Amino acid sequence: MLTLHQQPDRAETYRERHPYRFDPVLNCIGVFDADIVAAVFRSDKFDVVSFADQYRYICEKTDLDFAATVAAFHHIPLANEGARHKETRSEIASIIGEDSRERMRLMEDFVAEHTRRLFTAGNEIELADDLTKPIFLQLFSMWLGVDHDNLVDDPNFSQVFDMKMSLNRRKRINRNVGELTCAFHDRREQIPTTPEYATAMNILGNDALKGTISLSLWNVLMHNQGVRLDSIRYPRNMPSTGVPFIERVAREDVEVNGMFVAQGQRVRLYLDATAYYVSGAEHDVLFGKGKHVCLGKPMSLAIWRSLTAALSAIPLHFTTGEMRMRAGDYAFNCMDYARVKIHD
Ligand code: HEM
């Protein structure tokens, strides 16, 4: 099922298919068990999906130009293995690692202040645009040294990971990726890396961060209707994820915790099935494990903890309003909007 990760009643399906089940529509094994997911992440018998090769294939078949996307994937660690993976991971780690303590403190202060300013009596907040977008812009402006507000017309580029979207949408996302890389070329002197790496970081962090934070807060609020903001017991880790699954391909015939995977078989690791507002239990695989573990994890957690600490000190009530998930999204769980009204 292409959009299983977006179905409101998916917890039931996840339970039915637990621990794993072959999906003939997707032609892959869906994995729904946190221990098997972690074991696959840690195994050296699986490779990440070679997105660049898949785009090269689309170029050949359609005679369309996806060069911007192919170049971006060449700089994205989770689309590469071996020496290229090490090289790309270490470049991005050096940018994120620079002054990391000081920068984390700056972000925590920004998030706390931003939250206090937004969550005031009478205010209607839209979680995607008002809360998480400014946090993303602040973080990436700090990491990459250029103001990210209005850097490009359409900041939708994380969806390059979506291998099921229509060709028209793919063309649009490719154009966005190209425009973003050009924007960084124009600001080359200011950024601490090449335009391609700056683009790669934006692709990796954008929907993942915004989707995960908005959805996590939304779910916490939905589970605490009627409770005052300062009386909610906020989970330390984000309870939901904007990255509902990650895929791997078996390099050779392999058995993982009783699951047999033939060489070349794709497995879809449903991180979403392990998130505790879906499955009922908290598991720590939402940022991956092993050599591809997320480099944005410490900062993303610091942002969540600062946000929830600030909310814990706000003696106000809230009412949840309308929420809509981004439609036709086969890779991320992001919202178009989620409205929350704050009152005494
Ligand atoms: C809450 C937000 C985020 C979530 C849920 C998330 C999730 C993940 C996951 C599941 C992976 C593992 C992918 C795999 O093993 O194939 C990953 C990898 C990665 N993430 Fe994040 N991520 C988040 C935020 C960020 C941010 C803000 C950045 C900043 C640029 C980032 C950078 C990366 C990088 C560079 C990798 C690849 C590491 C590698 O392949 O060696 N992430 N992320």
Blueprint of the fold:
Layout: H1 10-17, E1 20-23, E2 28-31, H2 34-42, E3 46-48, H3 51-62, H4 67-74, H5 82-97, H6 100-118, E4 124-126, H7 127-144, H8 167-186, H9 195-222, E5 245-250, E6 254-256, E7 259-261, E8 266-270, H10 276-279, H11 297-311, E9 317-325, E10 335-343
Parallel strand pairs: 2-8
Antiparallel strand pairs: 1-2, 3-5, 4-10, 5-8, 6-7, 9-10
Residues 41, 48, 77-78, 89, 92, 201, 204-205, 208-209, 212, 241, 243, 246, 286-288, 292, 294-296, 300 line the site of protoporphyrin IX containing FE (HEM).
Descriptive tags:
344 residues; 5-stranded mixed beta sheet; 3-stranded antiparallel beta sheet; 46% helix; binds protoporphyrin IX containing FE
